[in-house]
Amino acid sequence: MLHDYELHISKAAVTPFPLNLKLTSEGEACSNPDLYRCYVDKLNFLTHTRPDLAFVVQSLSQFMHCPKLSHIAALTHTLRYVNHASGQGILLKATDKLTLQDFSDSDWAACPSTRRSVIGYVLLLGNSPISWKSKKQSTISKSSSEAEYRAMSQASSEVTWIVRLL
After folding, report:
1. Could you tell me where the beta strands, DSSP code E, fall in 24-153?
2. Which candidate, 17, 87, 151, 157, has a CA 20 to 30 Å from the CA of 133?
């Protein structure tokens, strides 16, 4: 995937996304939006084995219709991270105690244009992750507490679904 990328990605990045970056739909348009779409789609498939990329892909996917140069810079940063952290992935550990745990969090009003919160959760069976997600909430939360409750609700819905499978 990385060999065909036209921009320079040999410099290492230690985080999947530039710190404190808030992407907006403002700025100069990208000259090759198809390249942007192609690589965001490829990163989407990586989220099946790389939960550390879930938030990044969710953020970059919002601008598929009209990517800007700032989005290309964020994508390049992410590809630098993937290039230098290629050995990372899901570690499945055997354990004699199969407990189901869920962890959730939200970033209240994280999207600067819609003021919607971004939620994320991960479910662990024993010590191994079995499900995770990062997404923008469909409604606007009026407080950080409400955003956290919505994140917990989303995670508990996933727990209920997984318990039915088990």
Report:
1. 100-107, 118-125, 128-136
2. 87
| pTM of the predicted structure, to 2 decimals | 0.72
Only one residue has tokens 């994140």, namely 151
**CA distance linking residue 59 with residue 135, whole number of Å:** 8
Query: Which residue type sits at 111?
Result: C
Work out how many domains the chain is built from and give that number: 2
Beta-bridge partners for 131: 123
DSSP secondary structure code for residue 61 in this structure: H
Structural domain containing residue 26: 10-89
- State how far the Cα of 79 lies from the Cα of 92, in Å rounded to an integer: 25
- pLDDT tens-digit readout, 45-65: 888 888 889 889 999 999 999
Q: What is the distance, to the nearest Å, from the Cα of residue 70 to the centroid of all Cα atoms in its chain?
A: 17
Q: Which of 61, 89, 117 is the last residue of a domain?
A: 89
Residues 82 and 22 in one domain: yes
